[in-house]
Amino acid sequence: MNIVFLKFRRHLCFTLALFITALLAAAAAAQQGAQRSATPEIVFKQVAPDLHFLFDFESSNAGVLITEEGVLVIDTRQHPRDGQDLLNRIRKITDKPVKWVVNSHFHGDHTYGNSVFKAAGATLVAQRDTARLMQQVAAKEFARRGQFFERRGYDPKEVKLVLPDVTFDQEMTIRLGGKEVRLIYLGPGQNPGDTFILFPQVRVLYTPGAFGQRSMPNMAFTSSVDNWIKLLGQVAAMDVDKIIPAHGDLATRPDLTELAKFLSDEYTAVKNAVAAGVKVEEAVKTLTLPEYKDWRNYNRREQEIRALYELIGTGKRSYFE
Asked: CB of 250 within 8 A of CB of 47?
């Protein structure tokens, strides 16, 4: 009787252990599934004949022109693995060689996939100031990508600084497979070197970090808010229907005007506070910009105000020193 009971107890314990293990595995799978569902999907979509847009809500975007002669890529994403993912998506559509890569501005989240495309034989091009800053602030750019690498489980050691092969000053035109691509520099916006890429045949424009739809931009890099506002007006007057931003989803020209208004409102408020002798600590408490509280990255408001106080007070950007 005791032997039978002991066998039964062992069997019961074993069954319970299996049941608990299954429950824990199911809970872990459910948690992972919830995390995946909470993370916006990375989308690669066609926005015009031969023109595609990679939209990564949590990171950076890319543009891809596919022609019979070859491929042109704008921005290579935030890590070589992201760059390879972009290349893999391109390869599902075409086996044509990647001829050109354009870096729209110097930030590492738009250039750290360069090594993948350089290895694939592409020629890299950027505005002169973009190329200069990629090298000048390389250590700072790498340091501020650490949290992103950790979240996605990326090895930082895989990142290599790959500089442009070709630079330009104001404008450059690339012709590929019967298509024209115009690279346009209108002066500093969010960054020195901010490059707008125009596809005139399909009336589409790719923008650098100087624009994002209903999103507060990082103000730590701009050398001239006035010129930033001015160039947004120039871009809004261009003959285009669709805007592909470096961050955020597809937009249209009125969205450019809306961002210009935000910049004007924020800059005016901060300049008035400085002129009135308001200390920066008081300004970050009182300049709440409630009209924009529903914008993406509203939590940047405090650091933006501090960055503008620095620019107004010193005329310099400490990030570049």
From this structure: yes
Name the packing angle between helices 253-275 and 301-314 (round to 10°): 60
Tens digits of per-residue pLDDT, 226-278? Answer: 999 999 999 999 999 999 999 999 999 999 999 999 999 999 999 999 999 99
- Residue 275, CA distances (Å) to 219, 268, 301, 311, 313 in order: 19, 10, 20, 14, 10
Tell me how far apart the alpha carbons of residues 78 and 108 are, in angstroms, rounded to a whole number: 6
User: Over the stretch 75-112, which tens digit does the pLDDT of each residue have?
Assistant: 999 999 999 999 999 999 999 999 999 999 999 999 99
Q: H-type helices in 178-241, by residue range?
A: 225-236
- Is residue 64 helix, strand or coil? strand
Contact 315, 273 (CB under 8 A): no
Instruction: Burial-class residue 199 by CB neighbours within 10 Å (0-12, 13-18, 19+).
Output: buried
